[in-house]
Structure prediction request, 384 residues.
Amino acid sequence: MSSNDLLMTLVVVTALSFDFTNGFHDTGNAMATSIATGALPPRIAVALSGVLNLVGAFLSFSVAATIASGLVQSHLVTPTVVFAGLVGGILWNLATWFFGIPSSSSHALIGGVIGSTLAAAGGHAVLWHGVVSKVILPAVLSPVIAGMIAALGTYMVYRLTQSVADGVRSRGFRIGQIGSASMVSLAHGTNDAQKTMGVITLALIANGSLAAGHKAPAWVIVSCALAISLGTYVGGWRVIRALGKGLVQIESPQGMAAESASAATILLSSNFGYSLSTTHVATGSILGSGVGKRGAEVRWGVAGRMATAWVLTLPAAGVGGALAYEAAHGIGGTAGVAVIFVALVACALGFYLNSRRTPVTAGNVNDEWTGSVVPTPTPVGAAA
Prediction:
């Protein structure tokens, strides 16, 4: 294997690793409310979401084209720049997952690539108009729009079913949630899987393996679809718990309204090629479902901490991408990329081992919210 082949292999492996983290980080966007209301058992929920993410990845490629050519000057980007951007995105994903913060994997990826591009080629290499119109504006507007749709939907659901017995209504909407959650998973595949396809395509263009403006090759599409599907099946239980239990004490009618609002918003954005954050949409929808139900408890403090993470995502991942590029470039060549890759693996292992000390699993993800993403352990003998 030549030095260039090794470099491209490391870039592709890192990109697929990001796609995997994207999957488990964002599982909660589709399934958190269905798990919280008991509409689906946790393991079945993540398995269903994984399959539908796989299907959704083949339904639309507009977002992949936006990432590949709409954010940075592709002729000024090198494979090392793409690799460093992915490192920044992965580190932010792992950090926010560990603390149970549903931040945007999309913005982590975009921020990382922009940061590494700035470090390598300067501000003129970034297509700022595309960043504003395709990333920042949707980030600001999407949770508001989804929240308004969910609030109206929740209000109408309770208004129209006010004469229905609570037990009958809950059972009916739990069944409906299976369909609405499935639509969110399908929509997630049409949007988020495309981003890694776009990044790998950008790396191939930068390497001269593809012509500028070329679409993602079939092997890229298939491998990215499988990676995000597998990550989804693993289940990011910390983020699922934060979304399902931390924002609103949610009931099945609210869950169906939130999921339906999320699916509609994400599918519409995918159609127009907007690199939307499904996390922003899902969080806005869940908050909207709380606003739309009279007397519902909405934990605005938790929402505020999440919003702070959203604001920090682009710059934090950008700094990570820039530092990774400077380190890899300073060492030089493929050796520099290999060293940073090993360091990334070590960091990922560290996050995982630390998470096992305070585990959140399918078994305790639905424990009552006590202010922390990590459930309070039940003292031995307390149940007796």
In short: Residues 380-384 have pLDDT under 50 and may be disordered. The CA atoms of residues 14 and 345 lie 10 Å apart. The first helix runs from residue 3 to 37. DSSP finds 13 helices and no strands in the chain.
